[in-house]
């Protein structure tokens, strides 16, 4: 049998299998590589570029047009979909005295506050104040809404685990039913994130954790996190093995 006849037969085989929703496993030999291959590219988003577009969006995009006014950071290697293959990151902008409604979803979120005072996010009834440097966690399926009672814009970085949730076909989102949740607790008195990590690796609990204080797992305020982190850095460097 000639090489041309073999090629023709392979093509017909592939076509006939495709018509029956099958594919020959031998075709995988054409894409198998000896090392992982990614299309994700290194990329730098500059604050001035992002912020000027958020300011323009603040004039053009109201809460009726978009439930959240955010600029998604799209990786140039991912066809404009996500920031990396596992992370969906965006910068969200809340105008002075603006409020956005409560919802929840199957992907989790964390928020690093970048600018502004007077904002807060209520997560499952806990009001978490927003100041630059703070970290707020929103586990999957927790209700959350955002408000800005201040006179300046509030901007934060959102990070979501949306890509793996979408890959598992588990994306879902629903509304709270009322515009905002009733506040049951506040983030006042919550402990620093570094306190948890310090405990989890068996080190002496830091002074910011006091008897009877229940660690908040949603709000990490930068002023209370900074000093314990500096102490932890010194502790790690002095006990580290070469
Ligand atoms: Fe959300």
Describe it.
- The protein is an alpha+beta fold and 242 residues long.
- The protein folds into 2 domains: 1-37, no CATH class; 47-224, Jelly Rolls (Sandwich), CATH 2.60.120.
- It has 5 helices and 12 strands.
- It has a 6-stranded antiparallel beta sheet. It has a 6-stranded mixed beta sheet with strand order 10-3-8-5-6-11, with no helix packed on it.
- A hairpin with a 2-residue loop joins strand 5 and strand 6.
- Helix 4 (193-200) packs parallel to helix 5 (222-239).
- The longest helix is centred in the C-terminal third of the chain and has 18 residues, at 222-239.
- It starts with a helix and ends with a helix.
- 21% of the residues are buried.
- Mean pLDDT is 84; it is low at 191-215 and 238-242.
- It binds fe (ii) ion.
- Residues 103, 105, 109, 144 line the site of fe (ii) ion (FE2).
In terms of topology, how is this protein built?
Elements: H1 3-19, H2 47-60, E1 70-72, E2 88-94, E3 99-105, E4 109-115, E5 119-123, E6 126-130, E7 135-138, E8 144-148, E9 154-160, H3 162-167, E10 173-175, E11 185-186, H4 193-200, E12 219-220, H5 222-239
Helix pairs in contact: 4-5
The chain binds fe (ii) ion.
Fe (ii) ion is lined by residues 103, 105, 109, 144.
């Amino acid at each position: 049998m000639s090489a041309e006849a073999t090629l023709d037969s392979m093509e017909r085989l592939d076509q006939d299998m495709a018509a029956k929703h099958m594919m020959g496993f031998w075709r995988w030999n054409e894409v198998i590589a000896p090392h992982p291959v990614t299309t994700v590219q290194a990329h730098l988003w500059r604050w001035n570029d992002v912020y000027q577009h958020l300011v323009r969006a603040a004039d053009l995009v109201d809460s009726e047009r978009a439930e959240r006014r955010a600029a998604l950071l799209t990786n140039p290697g991912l066809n404009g979909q996500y920031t990396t293959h596992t992370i969906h990151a965006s910068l969200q902008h809340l105008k002075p005295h603006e409020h956005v409604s409560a919802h929840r979803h199957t992907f989790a979120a964390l928020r690093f506050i970048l600018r502004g005072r007077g904002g807060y996010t209520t997560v499952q009834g806990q009001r978490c104040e927003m100041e630059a440097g703070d970290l707020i966690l929103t586990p999957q399926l927790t209700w959350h809404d955002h408000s800005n009672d201040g006179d300046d814009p509030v901007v934060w970085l959102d990070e979501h685990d949306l890509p793996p949730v979408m890959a598992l076909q588990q994306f879902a989102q629903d509304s709270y039913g009322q515009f905002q949740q009733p506040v049951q607790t506040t983030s006042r008195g919550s402990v620093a994130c570094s306190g948890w990590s310090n405990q989890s690796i068996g080190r002496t609990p830091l002074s910011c954790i006091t008897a009877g204080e229940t660690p908040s797992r949603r709000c990490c305020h930068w002023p209370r996190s900074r000093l314990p982190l500096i102490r932890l850095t010194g502790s790690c460097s002095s006990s580290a093995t070469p």
